[in-house]
Amino acid sequence: MRTMPTRVDGDLYEAAQAVGAAASRSAAQQISHWARIGRELESSARVSARDIQRVLAGEARYDNLSEPEQARVRAEWEEQFAHRIASLDLAAEFTSAGRPWTEADDDGGVVARDPRAH
Predict the structure, then answer these.
(1) Does 3 reside within a domain?
(2) How many angstroms separate the CA atoms of 7 and 70, rounded?
(3) Percent of the chain having pLDDT more than 70?
(4) What is the pLDDT, as a whole number, of residue 95?
């Protein structure tokens, strides 16, 4: 396989890192994986990119899609969720707002955090 250097958007790279880690892929491998999926989808007569975009925009029903189209929508949702989760820093958000919160430690015990106590 021949590789070529390319530039990608920072958000795409971060999403690829997050999603790729769950699948034991590097960011570059994840981006290549997505590119291959996109190539196959665009060349497939069984998948309508327009219908998928309508579902993702909330303008059409998921249940009306074919199985391959539903699979593509689920993959897109998974990517969006992974990107949003990777960008969350609730501890920093709550701390800056002065809001207490609770969380579980590594052993499952409950830990109360209160930035006002410091």
Answers:
(1) no
(2) 30
(3) 92
(4) 93
Instruction: Give the range of the structural domain holding residue 106, as residue numbers without chain letter.
Output: 91-118
Are 26 and 20 spatial neighbours (Cβ–Cβ below 8 Å)? yes
Q: Is the pLDDT of residue 46 over 80?
A: no
The tokens describing 99, both together, are: 């809001």
Q: What is the pLDDT of residues 85-112, one digit of tens each?
A: 888 899 999 999 999 999 998 889 999 9
Residues 39 and 78 in one domain: yes
Measured distance CA(35)–CA(37) in Å, rounded: 5
Pair 38, 64 in one domain: yes
Residue labelled with tokens 């069984």: 46
Question: Is the alpha carbon torsion for 103, 76, 53, 9 positive or negative?
Answer: positive
Which of the 8 DSSP states describes residue 63?
A: G
User: pTM of the entire structure?
Assistant: 0.46
Query: How many domains, in total, are found in the chain?
Result: 2
**Tokens standing for 98?**
């002065």
In a domain, 2, yes or no: no
pLDDT at 67 over 90: no
